[in-house]
Design brief:
The chain is built from 19 helices and ten strands. With about 475 residues, it is an alpha/beta fold. Strands 1, 2, 3, 8 and 9 form a five-stranded parallel beta sheet that branches. A five-stranded mixed beta sheet has the order 4-5-7-6-10.
């Protein structure tokens, strides 16, 4: 029986306020709290809460035969805590059913896996600690940010203790092979690899409400029929989509929630399909072969590469300047700096700088709060400049910065001493004034007008004229 492995990504970045050049060094708060709260409340009410309720009801209705997996970033969980704590409660109710699996990922949905292994591992651990704290579940299957994967990344992920990883079933990687099987890592065959079926995923995510699509309208029965029509020897259909597909990318009026309500029944009544979590797929299937991915792939755009985030000079410069700080940040213990450091790494900030157009342009424009990529770049670099000033104050960059920091601290110490000395002088002067005898003040002659103090002019007698 073929497995349907249904996975939902849930991530929201912390959006930055408009940070001007003159804010650098003067204001260390970068976040647009109004925008973050407004957007979070909107998606909580229109997406997360109603979709979670539907899934919970479906699990109960089908007595555990309906199963799904969620990948929640640390940044979205942080925003749930701040603005919509009831969403965390709804996920906890789903976790209690035993039919929901939570995937591992980096805390801030970052590209750390491309830059530094130790940093990557620390972010994954921080994320999984939070998942375990909130839901009592330690993730076993890993999905990297935007499904970024390569042979080297997969090898490291297995050595971190994960049994499987989900990535994109890219055509240029698989060639004639189907994504509907379980594969393994080329370097480290102990890591199982689930390949996303982009046809079933993208048809639901991007085409569902497109009335010009040849398959419109898409019903749950039609969708299940497509899976049944796949070759019988194929073993698993891995669907990985944004959870915002339900209620945001496609509104309630489009019928997307009705589709979700009818999907389990349409799949299960075929008798040829069943729902399985990623862990169940890995436990029940054997890899048919290894998948060789020399260069990193992702699920983004037609190219399925990294060009959505590192495709132009703006993105590359911001990326390199950010990770130049990683060694010093490894020594940092300041909680505020560490929080800002995590959020600066969120991949969305680089996505906003994308200059790709043509077939992928509308997608990038839809998710971009900035007017232009250049505006996004300038805003990000201004914030990064201020962040570096704060970091230099704690952990100087080099000997020159250390000397400057020492001089700055000396100047601040001397200024403080001078301020205290001035306060002490004023205090002494006040005490002297209060101790002065009152009678002495009374006997003092009143001051004369200024003109009375001038010496009187002496009239000189003119000499008599000589006769």
């Amino acid at each position: 029986m073929k497995s349907v492995c249904l996975n939902f990504q849930i991530h929201q970045p912390f959006r930055y306020r408009k940070y001007r050049f003159f804010d650098i060094g003067n204001d260390a708060y970068y976040y647009d709290d109004f925008a973050n709260e407004t957007f979070m409340r909107k998606v909580a009410d229109h997406v997360y809460l109603p979709a979670n309720k539907i899934i919970h009801d479906l699990i109960i209705k089908h007595k555990g035969a309906f199963k799904v997996a969620f990948s929640l970033s640390g940044t979205v969980l942080d925003q749930f805590k701040l603005y919509a704590p009831e969403v965390i409660d709804s996920f906890a109710h789903l976790a209690a059913t035993g039919c929901v699996e939570f995937l591992s990922e980096t805390y801030a949905n970052s590209m750390a896996s491309l830059k530094d292994g130790d940093l990557f591992e620390s972010q994954v651990k921080a994320h999984d600690d939070l998942i375990e704290e909130l839901f009592g579940y330690r993730p076993k299957v890993f999905r990297n940010t935007e499904l970024i994967y390569s042979d080297e990344i997969g090898d490291r992920v297995q050595k971190m203790g994960f049994e499987a990883m989900i990535t994109e079933g890219a055509k240029h990687v698989l060639g004639w092979k189907s994504p509907n099987y379980l594969y393994c890592n080329t370097i480290n065959p102990r890591l199982k690899v689930l390949m996303r079926n982009f046809r079933f995923s993208d048809d639901l995510s991007f085409k569902f409400s497109n009335k010009e699509w040849s398959e419109y309208p898409l019903t749950a029965e039609k969708y299940a029929g497509w899976m049944v029509a796949l070759p019988k020897e194929e073993e698993v259909v891995t669907i990985f989509i944004n959870y915002e597909t339900f209620g945001q990318l496609h509104t309630k009026k489009s019928g997307i929630f009705d589709f979700l309500k009818h999907l389990p029944e349409a799949v299960l009544k075929t008798g040829e399909l069943k729902f399985s979590t990623p862990s169940e797929v890995v436990a029940s299937l054997q890899p048919i072969s290894s998948v060789h991915v020399l260069y990193p792939i992702s699920w983004a755009d037609e190219e399925r590469d990294l060009s959505a985030w590192l495709g132009n000079e703006l993105q590359k410069e911001a990326f390199e300047k950010l990770y130049l700080l990683k060694d010093r940040m490894a020594q940092c213990q300041d909680a505020a700096l560490l929080k800002d450091w995590n959020y600066l790494q969120t991949i969305d900030h680089f996505y906003y700088m994308c200059t790709k157009f043509f077939s992928d342009g509308e997608v990038h424009k839809y998710f971009n709060p900035y007017g232009t990529p250049y505006e996004a770049f300038i805003n990000y670099m201004n914030i990064l400049s201020d962040f570096k000033i704060r970091l230099n104050a704690i952990i100087p960059e080099d000997e020159k910065h250390q000397e400057l920091e020492s001089l700055r601290e000396l100047f601040q110490a001397n200024s403080k001493k001078l301020e205290l000395a001035e306060q002490e002088l004023k205090k002494i002067q006040k005490e002297v004034t209060l101790k002065e005898p009152k009678e002495t003040k009374a006997k003092k002659a009143p001051a004369k007008p200024a003109d009375t103090l001038k010496p009187k002019a002496v009239k000189s007698k003119k000499a008599a004229p000589k006769k």
